[in-house]
Write a structure and sequence with these properties.
This protein has one domain: Rossmann fold (3-Layer(aba) Sandwich). It has an 8-stranded mixed beta sheet with strand order 1-8-7-6-5-2-3-4, sandwiched between helices. The chain contains 6 helices and 8 strands; from the N terminus they run E-E-H-E-H-E-H-E-H-E-H-E-E-H. 34% of the residues lie in helices and 21% in strands. The chain is of the alpha/beta class. Bound molecules: glycinamide ribonucleotide. Glycinamide ribonucleotide (GAR) binds next to helix 1, strand 6 and helix 6.
Length: 215
């Protein structure tokens, strides 16, 4: 057991960004609630010229989220829409929809967005909303997916990029990475390794979904 290759990951489909060049710059609207490392990976891929896209606006629902600092570093415009200031999930989604439409957003990217999406946004961006979840779906849906995997004592978990749907973490899967669990893993060590794979697959899955939608 001492030889577990902690950095091993199996990615499917086994492609990277260079395999999915986009002919046209896609306009991505980001939804983020937390540290924003996935947003950072997407913004870095754009900056490196590997992902042919722009981020006209990033919406965050938490006033003190670290993603706001990251966005400032990349020069991405941000809009704070604090969910506490809205009467319902639908009202929040109406405001998100209006903001994204105003900025010409074509695809919605949920990069650590910790709110349940409603029909309002799903209908506004039908088949154009992608989410990342830290498990191999359909296992361990919902909150605390990493803790769920550790409690279940599975040997492999990972991450999935999928289309958003009304049922949480249940839409069509675009790309997955499998990450082995080491015997001494904690939620923190495992999350760090899963996130390394999230940063690898998310930009590629975005390109893949956009390319497939335009074929
Ligand atoms: C990511 O690990 C993502 O998979 C998870 O939140 C983290 C956000 O990290 N998303 C969910 O659990 C959604 N149910 P980040 O803010 O550093 O990108």
């Amino acid at each position: 057991m001492g030889n577990v290759d902690r950095d091993f990951a199996l990615i499917s489909p086994n492609i990277s960004l260079v395999d999915v060049p986009l002919p046209r710059r896609a306009k991505l609207g980001i939804l983020a609630s937390g540290s924003g490392s996935n947003y950072g990976a997407i913004a870095a891929a754009i900056e490196a010229g590997e992902l042919n896209a722009d981020i006209p606006v990033l919406i965050c629902n938490k006033p003190r989220a670290k993603v706001l600092e990251r966005a400032a570093k990349f020069g991405t415009k941000t809009q704070l829409l604090n969910h506490r200031e809205f009467d319902s999930r639908e009202a929040l989604d109406e405001a998100i929809l209006a903001c994204f439409r105003e900025h010409g957003v074509e695809w919605v990217i949920m990069a650590g967005w910790m709110r349940i999406v409603t029909d309002v946004l799903l209908k506004g961006y039908e088949n154009r909303i992608l989410n990342i979840h830290p498990s191999i779906l359909p296992s361990f849906k919902g909150i605390r997916a990493i803790e769920q995997a550790l409690a279940a004592q599975v040997k492999v978990t990972g991450c999935s990029v999928h289309f958003a749907s009304l049922e949480v973490d249940s839409g069509e899967i675009v790309m997955q990475a499998a990450v082995p669990i080491a015997p001494n893993d904690t939620a923190e060590t495992l999350h760090a390794r899963i996130q390394a794979q999230e940063h690898r697959i998310f930009p590629t899955a975005i390109a893949l979904a956009i390319r497939d939608s335009e074929q």
